[in-house]
Amino acid sequence: ELFGSVEPLLPSLREDGVAVWVLGRGPYPPGALALQELLDAASEELQPENVWEPRDMNETCLYIFTSGTTGLPKAARVSHLKSIMCLGFYELVGASSRDVVYLALPLYHMAGSLLGIVGCLGIGATCVLKEKFSASQFWDECRAEGVTVFQYIGELCRYLVNQPQRPGERQHGLRLAVGSGLSPDVWRSFQRRFGPIRIVETYGMSEGNVTLFNYTG
């Protein structure tokens, strides 16, 4: 559904040697490769390790495009090693395979894709993946899905504490909230209003090599 936005750029992309892959059957004009037919034809047998195993774990695995706070979005290189390290994220903050993680962060950023999805894979946890965050429906969804862990960015918690109070908003199974950018006033309001939920605040950057965790609360 996004191909129409890219199609006018195909000639210039071809001149620059940029490949365009589309997750669909096509047909597409020259310069765009339809992946669905290739996926359908692919064998389910795993290829030998020397085909897919990176020669060096510090080689580029993927690029994460930053939000462009100081200009246009910039591609941050993420190595295979850093991607693999994200498998341990939820274990570091105290989650386990018994948890159900609520994730409504965009998957084109590191927090949603690598820490969220890859982190759930790392511990074998269930992930409730939401296309769009809704502060008014959040607690009902937590109860319906049995959510125990919530991954946030700071403003999501602010949206929740700014909602009108309603009955039953402390009747939930949420025990852990983990994320970045939670201000002290919202932190205190969140726990005072919704119960003694453990909060683990983290700080890191897609292009950085150090991450901080506030384990002590």
From TrEMBL:
For this chain, the family text in UniProt reads: Belongs to the ATP-dependent AMP-binding enzyme family.
Q: Which organism is it from?
A: Neodrepanis coruscans (wattled asity)
Task: Name the catalysed reactions.
Answer: a very long-chain fatty acid + ATP + CoA = a very long-chain fatty acyl-CoA + AMP + diphosphate; tetracosanoate + ATP + CoA = tetracosanoyl-CoA + AMP + diphosphate
Where in this chain does the record put each AMP-dependent synthetase/ligase domain? Answer: 48-211
SUPFAM superfamilies membership:
Acetyl-CoA synthetase-like
Query: Would you say which domain of life the source belongs to?
Result: Eukaryota
One of the Pfam families matching this protein, by short name: AMP-binding
GO terms, molecular function: long-chain fatty acid-CoA ligase activity
Q: Which Gene3D superfamilies match?
A: N-terminal domain of ligase-like
Q: Which residues cross the membrane?
A: 107-129
InterPro entries listed in its UniProt record: AMP-binding_CS (IPR020845), AMP-dep_synth/lig_dom (IPR000873), ANL_N_sf (IPR042099)
Protein name, as recorded: Long-chain-fatty-acid--CoA ligase
Keywords attached to this Swiss-Prot or TrEMBL record, sorted alphabetically, are:
Ligase, Lipid metabolism, Membrane, Transmembrane, Transmembrane helix
- Which Gene Ontology cellular-component terms appear in the entry? endoplasmic reticulum membrane; plasma membrane
PANTHER family given in the database record: LONG-CHAIN FATTY ACID TRANSPORT PROTEIN, LONG-CHAIN FATTY ACID TRANSPORT PROTEIN 3
